[in-house]
Amino acid sequence: MRRARALRRIRYNGATFLSFSAMNSRFTAIVAPLRDLLRYRDRPELFALLIYQAITTTGFTLLMPLVSVHFVADVGMAAATVGMALALRQISQQGLTFIGGMLADRYGLKPVLCTGLIIRAVGFFMLGYATAMPTFFTALLLTGLGGALFDAPFQAATVAMTQPQERREFYLLANYLSGIAATIGPLLAIALLLIDFSAVGVAAGLCFLTNVFVALRYFPNTRPSTSSDGDDTPQLRRLLRDRIYLRFVAIMCGYWFVVMQVNISFPLLAESLTGSQSSAGWFYTFSSVLTLILQYFLVRRLQRHFASHQLLITGTLIMTCGTFFLGTSSNFAFFLLWVACYTCGYLISRPMIDILVAHLAHPRALGLYVGISNISIGLGGGLGNFLGGWLYDLGKTYHLPLLPWSVFAAVGLFTAWQLALYFRRHPQAVAQ
Asked: Residue 378 has what DSSP assignment?
């Protein structure tokens, strides 16, 4: 009897200890991102980069998820027209980002980046008040040109100011903070819609003006990389001879084709299922919250066991699966289920792209290399926006609801296959 009581006491104390250990482990996991962020206070330039990216994401997700639904449902434009305008923004930004990178390599970070931020803010202000098609197209063109100027300098500065061994952790933390910001943005948009759509545009523009102050106050006006003679031509020649890098950029066009459906096809389907414009904001918030909960801890754990290229391929396949089955949704609950699948694939794969680009980029032409990598977003994302809207309209017209989603799935599967072949043929492209 005495022995049985002793054994029960041991089991109870052991269970209590295990329970306490589990709670302590969960608490440590929750505060880990905050702890890692605070570590960068001693490196104010990197800390400012993280805050800048969070503000940028807040401003972007405030407005862009609502553009397709607002201009189709409220203004009365065709989905294909809105898709074409979004494609114009995508191509003007990502297709010209290499120019922003070259300018930053030559003239320094601050003037190029701040000019782009101001142009983006003006474009968002215009977008908030646009009712005519010329104004709508002009506003989206300005937002794209602004992004072309500030995107590559920021990314090149991040590569230049981080060490290779710390980039995985830095990019993961940056994406986690972007997830928080992407959660806040749509929620603010839903609240501001109670005033008017113009309030959303103004608030989004103010976010980018705030980043002008952040950049002027905290960013160094350094040139992320320059050639010894200051001539950009050798850098361009070097890039054009780098077939391994250019092939990676070309393959990633398919990845961004699928990703960009979140800006055009996803919100259109959400609105058709619910009949509410705010459903776009809700599903975007749901996706962002899921990213916030999973990305930092899931990706960190996966990175311990898998290489970056393996996670990129796997994430692409998961994202493609979610995108295809999204088209089978009969109600908003199933829609959110497949959005969750898409989100898991995206949050696994997205940080890997930054790591691989940083690994493949030549250190003396960071701005140019990073800028060229964004051409895949411009071409793939631009085609995704335009063809996404066109295929969605086509599917409705001919009563083929799975038509667009089947095309998206085919592109995603082809991209994953090409990535697998690429890394098998070019093992030097694998980031350690």
From this structure: I
